[in-house]
Amino acid sequence: MIGPIIGDIAGSRFEWNNCRSKEFELFTGECFATDDSIMSLAVCQALLESEGDPDTLARQTVRRMRELGNLYPGAGYGGRFAEWLVQPDPQPYNSFGNGSAMRVGGCAYAGKTLDEVKALSAAVTAVTHNHPEGIKGAEATAVAQFLAISGKSLAEIREAVTREYYPLDFTLDEIRSSYRFNETCQETVPQALEAFFESTSFEDAIRCAISVGGDSDTLAAITGAVAEAYYGVPAAIRGKAESFLDERQLKILRDFEARYPGKAEI
Q: How buried is residue 51: exposed, middle or buried, by Cβ count under 10 Å (0-12/13-18/19+)?
């Protein structure tokens, strides 16, 4: 589950100052773990506590996202989500923002079947992003991850995504000069998945995602989630990313990975 966190941290310094190239230093002192990492970890914690029950998972997701969100108030939350974090009776607000897709990564590891992964994805998403496009973006990410974990090829994963979710009728080279910041699922998830499909390794996937521009941390977090499931993560990159996390965050990550191991490090 380190993949989306790596993408988030590497992309954090480019969110408002896009890099339109794959040539950049992956981690610098300007990088940090944003709301994408915090909420991904909150969902992982909720998954550990829910034992696969979607109703329990939804309640625990609300609890853990609000708990961690208020412990890390300066992580870069969107306006409506920031309000949701402090409301006395938080309710979903029909969002189709890309926040639904960046935090869903743990569901692909916790689910035993494709249908279960979809149910878990919907449970953690609908507590805030209950618009159909919000549900769709999260599910597309989780499904691509699960297919990668299951050993499907790039071509097989792409076929499933284009059949069920997005057409992906573009290349990164075609959109790189014109793509702009966009916080919606429908204008972030397809680009993030295309970055994965054009990649040759985990690190290359992160570089592809950031090179497109736009909402760089979130786009790279989504790409990183699927790329980790497919390629695994180099131990050196993991080590550098973990240095940006505090002990509370590392404990959640390690507890989750102990319960739901990913692909072996490379």
A: exposed
